[in-house]
Amino acid sequence: MSDIEMIEHDEEEIEELESVVIRFAGDSGDGMQLTGTQFSNTTAVFGNDISTMPDFPAEIRAPQGTTAGVSGFQVNFSSYDVLTPGDAPRVLVAMNPAALKTSLPDLESNGIIIVNTDTFTPTNLRKAGYESNPLEDGSLRGYEVHEVPLTTLNREALKEFTTLSTKDKDRCQNFFALGLTFWLFDRPLGTSGEWLKKKFAHKPELAAANAKAMETGFYFGETTEAFRHRYRIRPASLPPGVYRKVTGNEATAMGLVTAAYKAGKPLFYGTYPITPASDILHSLAPLRHFDVRTFQAEDEIAAMGSVIGAAFGGAIAVTGTSGPGIALKSEGMNLAVALELPMVIIDVQRGGPSTGLPTKTEQSDLLQVMFGRNGESPMPVIAPQSPSDCFDMALQAVRMAVRASTPVVMLTDGFLANSSEPWAIPNPDDIPAIDIEHPSAPSNGAGEPFLPYKRAPETGGRPWAIPGTPGLEHRIGGLSKAPLTGNVSYRPEHHEQMCRERAEKVARLAEFIPEQDVFGPLEGELLLVSWGGTYGATRTAVQKAIAQGKSVAHVHIRYLNPFPRNLGELLQKYHKVLVAELNGGQLAFLLQGKFARPVLTYSKLHGQPFKISEISRKIDEVLGS
Amino acid sequence: MSTNTIPLELTRKDFVSDQTVRWCPGCGDYAILAQMQKTLPELGIPREKIVFISGIGCSSRFPYYMNTYGIHSIHGRAPTLATGLAVTNPDLSIWVITGDGDGLSIGGNHLLHVMRRNVNLNIILFNNRVYGLTKGQYSPTSRKGFKTKSSPMGTIEQPINPVAIALASEATFVARSIDSHTQHLGEVLAAAAAHKGVSFVEVYQNCVIFNPDEWGPLEDRRERDDHMIYLEHGKPMVFGRNRDKGVRLNERFEPEVVQLGEQYTVDDLIVYDARSKALAMMISSMEHPYFPTPMGVIRQVSAPNYTEGLMAQIEAAQAQKGKGDLHKLYRAADLWEVK
Ligand code: SF4
């Protein structure tokens, strides 16, 4: 493939762009996720800043050719910082009519469309709900449409692979499309070429066929007259370092492994398969050599129970799930609150209620994790702001759990979980150790009775005495208990004291977490408040507003319980506070309840992240400009 | 289950906690607690390595009364906590205390899976065939027709048999005993502790308040031997106060009680084989008053347990890839450098 990289280009043809958004869309069997991932890898390695977002149906194979079965993968790549996968694609690769139909409304006006014309048959058009062929009826006027008989060209190119069936050859079609986009954006083929060799090490013929398809796609761009331009997006000036691409789920998994490593303990991850959290399990399961003990439980409830048992035993104990799973885990989470054992619960939020939108994003579990348990059951809640931030926050979740001997919830979401961005790989040696002290009998004082609920004065946490320690045998349980001893007690004053102590130690984590930072002016007309995966869109919209001279600042909250200690004060510094979130106004509810500060809400329930333009419009609306 | 043992000088008193026992006077739970406290010192397991985990119900108060590590957890979930703990520390002697409601109703799913996985722990299911703590509703093991506050005209549900559930769940050790036969109970508990892998013990327990007549003659010292059969591996199935009765396999391949004497001798009886699942399944349906109720070790086979399997994987992975290295983990992807 190196010969291709050396092809002399007529520099005239190449147009410089700062950033481009491209979407690959096709049937869920067309391999679009793979194509998008390969395109992003090459682009990331090339040095652009990227942000990616997959969008796939909940069904594994929805009816072929229908709009329900369309799977898409969007990549925003740029020569400057990008924080979102982009509002509107400039380039759309549509492998069939249904893909064109679902993605066209999002495309930029004047955008570029590459279609596989071979799939525009009467049957497929009908399945996609087209009454006439959009390639012929003028409905694509204004776009730059490239009609490519991709299936035919690809089969032709793979003629020499006589042992492969037509079906096998057609499976290489996505690499043809990939090659063509590599040509269009002036990318080398090496990264994907290497990947193919590794992936199909045992099926060299498939590796060769895919590579050939990719090269042919590339040559097709080179030789055909149809494409007027190529585009070049220069590498971004990211801070120096070694980078990789990371999704939120991958970063979460690596953060957890790191936390356990830094604590010198096994990582216990007890979970039940659920979309979109399962990839955390898939990332952790192959890490047995890190002493990672994954446990696929019989149900969500069992997963939570196993984590409590593991925490009692002294592991870094973690579970991961999504909304419906959190509902089932509430009982166990509540026991964890009563037992006061450290553990982490990761909720990769998806659209609800009930089964809702399994593969789509939402931020609607906030109030559930805050309040969705019987009794007074305070629990710290944190939320990473980007895929790579999941790494830092997973570590932070473990630190908070250990400090206050409490379960901690980390809220990510379907968007963060599956989208990716470049990650400046940290040096693990620079990550501070997580010091855990388990009491032993002598440290407890000879002859003194062990008091499992004797709290540390600085943190309110209780001693983490683990089975196997002689002399510290003790019993804990879900019944109300006496202070210090933890013995069962129904006395009114004991119940009240224990409830208050648990609330107090969670509240005191505010001393441990950082103060809230502000982007933009420290006082002014409007403060935009957001949390979780909406960071990129809100921050970019505020950047734009500030550049236009508007009096807007941005606070993105990563710590939701307790809130950063200076947050209440910050909210008072602006005339208006606007909370943007992908739910019916849950953070707004919390802020108003906690700080008695009226706020405006901007809520969206599409199962999709915010677009920058949506936030910008809302900012203008609130500012009355 | 079993763990490495070292000789220790522990006595019954070392296992008695400072909490006042609060079961109803006469409750069968007292006898089980006493046998447990008597048996544990004989096992030679250091006290700090013993953990009791229970769910909710009368029996589930058990851990509070044992001076060991313990968790009184939530209804039906004890097996899940026990699994997490066993995976974290395979060195512990973990006892799950459950009941017919806790283990077979709300926690039925967990019980099934913990046995299927052969997690190295001991499950003691106190079966009194009634809900005690909630004041007397029928349970999943209550006899059909049982009249309670929630079934004033009698239950219309088919009860389930805990031993049959354990066998169907592939438990590697399945046994049964009864609260009032303290010596037998002690022996069964010790055998459960000695087994490597999951041990399931059903203990017939007398709820003197809500279901006092359930076990009838089985609770009667003088009569019980005519109504129970003490299973012994490799021995013919003889029973009776005078050891004059036995169980044979009849022409329809069903168990049949016979009088030993002229027509039948010991040679006609089934020789019990605790390794045979088929035999265990068959005798699991035997029950007083039609049959002598089987007591003792019903099934025992040796099989790799869950934690052994997991630890073996960890060792194999470390042997193959070396101990986990974070530098390598972070870099297991396409990399690029920005200068
Ligand atoms: S209700 Fe029955 S099982 Fe419960 S403590 Fe009283 S006698 Fe025992």
Describe the protein in words:
The complex is a heterodimer of chains A (625) and B (339). With 625 residues, chain A is an alpha/beta fold. Chain A has 4 domains: 2-233, Pyruvate-ferredoxin oxidoreductase, PFOR, domain III (Pyruvate-ferredoxin Oxidoreductase, domain 3, 3-Layer(aba) Sandwich); 244-430, Rossmann fold (3-Layer(aba) Sandwich); 437-498, no CATH class; 524-623, Rossmann fold, CATH 3.40.50.920. Helix content of chain A is 36%, strand content 20%. In chain A, the strands form 5 sheets. In chain A, strands 11-10-12-13-15-14-20 form a 7-stranded mixed sheet, sandwiched between helices. A 6-stranded mixed sheet of chain A has the order 3-4-2-5-6-7, with helices on both faces. In chain A, α4 (122-127) links the parallel β6 and β7. The longest helix of chain A has 20 residues, at 204-223. Chain A is globular and about 90 Å long. The termini of chain A are far apart. Mean pLDDT of chain A is 94; it is low at 1-9. By secondary structure, chain B is an alpha/beta fold. Chain B has a domain at 12-226 and 293-307: Rossmann fold, CATH 3.40.50.970. Chain B has helices at residues 29-43, 78-88, 100-106, 108-116, 162-168, 182-194, 277-284, 306-321, 326-330; strands at residues 50-54, 69-72, 93-99, 122-127, 173-178, 199-204, 228-231, 238-239, 245-249, 255-259, 293-300, 335-338. Chain B has an 8-stranded mixed sheet, with helices on both faces. In chain B, β9 and β10 form a beta hairpin. The radius of gyration of chain B is 22 Å and the shape is globular. Classes of the chains: A alpha/beta (625), B alpha/beta (339). The interface between A and B is large, with 76 and 62 residues. Iron/sulfur cluster (SF4) binds next to loops of chain B.
